Structure formats: C-alpha cells, structure tokens
C-alpha cells in the first residue's frame, strides 16, 4: 500500500482499536442488519395501528393506511396542517386521529383553562357540560382538551407501549437506514482530508 493508504489505516486503527478495516465494516453491517427498513417499519406500524383499533374506540374516520401517515408525519415533526394537506383532509381531523393513536404534542396541553382541574373532573367522571360549567368555559373548548387528557390517560395505562414502538421503529428506519451510511462516509472523508492536509504539510 502507498504512504497515504498506510496513514489512513494507522488513523483507523488509532480511532477504532481494530487492526483491519474489514472487521469494522463487518460490525457496521451487523448493526445495520438489526435495524428495520422503511418498508418494514411501515408494515409494523400498520400492525400496531390495527392492534390499537381493536383495543380502543377510534374517533377519527381514517383507515389504517391514513393513520400510518399520521404516525410517520408526527415523528417527522410535521404539524397537523401539513399532515392534513398530505391526506386531503383538515387539521382538526388529524388532531382526532393523533389522539386516537396517543400522539400528544406539547402544545396540545397549552389550554385556556386549568388542565389539572379538568383532569380531576375527568377522573371523577363528571359530565362534559358540568365540566364546562365548573371551569367557566365553553363546551367545545372543554371537549377538545378533555380529548387530550383522555389520550394521555390511555397512553399511561398502556405504559406508552404504542408510542414507544412507533418512535423506535421510525428512529431505526429513518436514522439508521437513511443517515448511518452518510455519517460513516462523512467520517472517512474527514479522515482522508486530515491525512491529505498532513501530507501536504
């Protein structure tokens, strides 16, 4: 091997503690093998959605395929309007679908009423109209934030199992399959640039 290749190999050994590039590449392939592809993730998310539909009374009229899009859009940091545009529906329908799936955003909790008090009323099984009277709020607003609390309670009772699985699947599919190769390539490019700079010096 030439001098530059030897320097690249030496840098690799110093960085990884491995004697050969082949061993490290094999390990990387093993790590990626444990991840799921985007197609596998979508299939497994659809299965989770189906299990949730069997277990809970969904309020949205979305089919399983549309609910999968809601999940993937949520974890892609798309807002409800963006997800709605992709589905050809409105943001309120997406909100209902999200809450069916236990997907609560931080801003969902930003209510013009005391959420702790509303939660206590829900736990005490107080009727919707009475909740509105006690909180001096309109029924529509109380109903909206009651749905948020109901979604959080369902998620808690399920030990956040569904949302955790959604997140894990999409993290594996998006980060590992899409970005891991780029990260390794970038790291090798930086190492090669360092060697080239040192060689020039």
Integer average pLDDT? 79
Number of strands: 0
Put simply, the count of helices is: 10
- Low-confidence parts, pLDDT < 50 over ≥5 residues? 11-33, 175-184, 186-199
Strand content: under 5%
Report the major sheet: none
Q: In angstroms, what is the radius of gyration?
A: 25 Å
Query: What share of residues is helical?
Result: over 70%
User: How far is it from the N-terminal to the C-terminal residue, by CA?
Assistant: 21 Å
Q: Write down the domain tally.
A: 1
Q: How do the SSEs run, as a string of H and E?
A: HHHHHHHHHH
Shape: elongated
Structural class per helix/strand content?
mainly alpha
Protein name: Conditioned medium-induced protein 4
Label this structure with key terms.
mainly alpha; disordered C terminus; Conditioned medium-induced protein 4; 201 residues
Give an account of the 3D structure:
The chain has helices spanning 3-16, 21-34, 38-55, 64-75, 80-87, 91-100, 115-123, 128-135, 139-157, 161-200. With 201 residues, it is an all-alpha fold. The protein has one domain. Helix 3 crosses helix 4 (64-75) and helix 5 (80-87) crosses helix 6. Residues 1-12, 178-187 have a biased composition (Basic and acidic residues).
């Amino acid at each position: 091997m030439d001098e530059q290749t030897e320097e690249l190999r030496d840098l690799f050994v110093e960085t990884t503690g491995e004697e050969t590039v082949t061993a490290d590449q094999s390990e990387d392939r093993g790590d990626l093998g444990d991840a799921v592809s985007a197609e596998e993730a979508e299939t497994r998310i659809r299965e989770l959605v189906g299990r949730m539909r069997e277990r809970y009374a969904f309020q949205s009229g979305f089919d399983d395929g549309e609910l999968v899009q809601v999940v993937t859009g949520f974890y892609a940091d798309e807002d409800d309007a963006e997800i709605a545009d992709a589905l050809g529906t409105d943001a309120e329908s997406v909100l209902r679908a999200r809450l069916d799936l236990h997907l609560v955003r931080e801003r969902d909790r930003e209510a013009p009423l005391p959420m702790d008090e509303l939660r206590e009323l829900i736990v005490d099984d107080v009727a919707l109209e009475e909740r509105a009277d006690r909180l001096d709020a309109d029924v529509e607003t109380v109903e909206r934030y009651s749905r948020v609390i109901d979604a959080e309670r369902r998620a808690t009772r399920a030990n956040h199992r569904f949302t955790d699985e959604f997140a894990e699947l999409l993290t594996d599919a998006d980060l590992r399959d899409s970005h891991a190769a780029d990260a390794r390539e970038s790291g090798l490019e930086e190492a090669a640039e360092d060697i080239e700079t040192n060689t020039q010096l």
